[in-house]
Amino acid sequence: MIFVSINWVKRFIFGFSLLFILVASGLAKEPLNFVIIFTDDQGYGDMSCNGHPTIHTPNLDRMAYQGQKWTQFYSSAPVCTSSRAALMTGRLPVRSGMASSKRVVLFPDSAGGLPQYEITVAEVLKEVDYKTGMVGKWHMGHLPEHLPTTQGFDSYYGIPYSNDMDRDLSVKGNWIELGKTAPWSAYRVPLIKNIKEIERPVNQNTITRRYTQEAVKFIKDNKSKPFFLYLAHSMPHIPLYASRKFKGKSLNGIYGDVIQEIDWSVGQVINTLRQQDLHKKTIVMFTSDNGPWEVFKTHGGSSGLLRGAKGGTREGGMREPTIFWGPGNIKPGVIQEMGSTLDVLPTFASLAGAKVPTDRKMDGYDLSEVLLSRGKSPRKEMYFFGGAKLSAIRFENYKVQVREENGINPIILEKPELYHLGEDPSEKYDLASKRPEIVKDLINRGERLKSGIKPVPDQLVPKISK
Ligand code: MG
Asked: Which of 52, 80, 146, 233 is catalytic?
């Protein structure tokens, strides 16, 4: 009798193990889809789940509750072009010439763009048969040879540079005031479909809604294949416009209206994934390219309790409101460890079983262990560049600031400053004189990094010849 029951137990264990292996391998084989929702100049404090008292973001809050909210997640640059180059390549933008000490970002007269020798996350995923789509602001070169369709994306719908560029010069006025009051028709920004201009100037009142429609269509059209969608909203970068349904609806003025429309858009993407039964095999990431544009006052956002804003390498310029969502895959929680947009390429490659380039220096880490099981983040350090100059270095909890941004050429501080970002996330209390050995160690880390960066042509300087 005992013999029979032991045998039965063994069979049960064997059968159960087999079933587990089959289910596990089945799950492992099911490719994950990836969606990046990227906003422009949204501050760390600009969502209700990060404490904003007058902007209501129920969809982002729900995403954060069901997924992971990261509280120490960094962009790789405090401005648009460089930040996006890092997100796409997993490499510091100085390595691709997409950070410059001469010009802040790419402009409509720029001839440069992300070099073709760079390998984007879209190209990495295409190697394992993903369908790839981009919707929104690109800002890595607007000439045909630099558009998303040359960098691994099967399709593109969006504006090629910032929404305040190509201003109609007959509309006179102070730059800051115009950024707050000019009509959308004052900015001759083109809307491009793949490589063709389809509208100019683009009607920015409806742009967030139209990006959303395109994103939803991309998901539905590609539901039977693994896909990667990069949805990069062109706002809350100034000038700010919202569609009729959202205009005047927030307590925060037009800035809040814009964020609330983007929040609605996030809800549309999530709802579409649920309706198409894709939610259990899709990872959605939400983050911003850099901090809020403070000079525009109420038309710029808020870094919350962080110091500094867009254009600078204090935390408010670099730390982003960040959420990862994926029911059944992403382990819910608040992650207080470090991550960066530099880590997106290696993380998605790891989750998709794709190869990370090995013929070049990569600056990203694979965060998949943190996403799937809340393991420890492999990222312990972060390098903060203002233009092409290294301004600050973080290792574990300490950050040393050696330069301060003041335009494109950060000036060297009289004395380096040191902050403990755990105890002092607002960078208020300089510890440099108390901990000189840490200052020295961090500066040495920065020197080692710099000595490994090979000079390449500056992509932001060349202009289109007339
Ligand atoms: Mg930006």
From this structure: 80
